[in-house]
Amino acid sequence: MAVEVSDAPEAKRYEARVDGESEVAGIAGYIRTAELVAFVHTEVAPEYEGRGVGSALARTALDEARSANLRVLATCPFFAGWIARHPEYQDLLYQSRSRVSD
């Protein structure tokens, strides 16, 4: 099974398609700024769960964030868990620079 992932900036999401089909098998929604990209929601169609679609979405989106020198804020539980299991992407995680405390 071949998974193709593409950025759909007008929809603010990455889209995954399987084996050249036109139907979207999964999406990873994001909010992008000049400095970071926040991944806020990931969804894979039930018939494609457990078949690598979510991983393809995460890997492509994170590789593109790295290429664009963007930090990543993983508010989506799927992205947070995926990054935790793939230490080669942990350097992308956004770290607050604020020193303000209560």
Notable characteristics:
about 30% strand, alpha+beta, single chain, about 100 residues, 5-stranded mixed beta sheet, elongated
Explain what you see.
- Helix content is 24%, strand content 31%.
- The protein has two helices and five strands; from the N terminus they run ββββαβα.
- It has helices at 53-67, 77-85; strands at residues 3-8, 13-18, 26-32, 36-44, 71-74.
Condensed summary:
The protein is α+β, with helices and mostly antiparallel strands and 102 residues long.
Tally of contiguous helical segments: 2
In terms of structural class, how would the helical and strand content be classed?
Answer: alpha+beta
Q: Rounded to an integer, what's the Rg over CA atoms?
A: 14 Å
Low-pLDDT parts are none
User: In total, how many beta strands?
Assistant: 5
Helix content: 10-25%
**Molecular shape:** elongated
Mean pLDDT: 94
Distance between the termini: 52 Å
Strand content: 25-35%
Helix and strand string, N-terminal first?
EEEEHEH
Seen as an oligomer or otherwise, the chain set is: single chain
Note the main sheet.
5 strands, mixed
Q: What spatial order of strands do you see in the largest sheet?
A: 1-2-3-4-5
Give me the secondary-structure topology.
Layout: E1 3-8, E2 13-18, E3 26-32, E4 36-44, H1 53-67, E5 71-74, H2 77-85
Parallel strand pairs: 4-5
Antiparallel strand pairs: 1-2, 2-3, 3-4
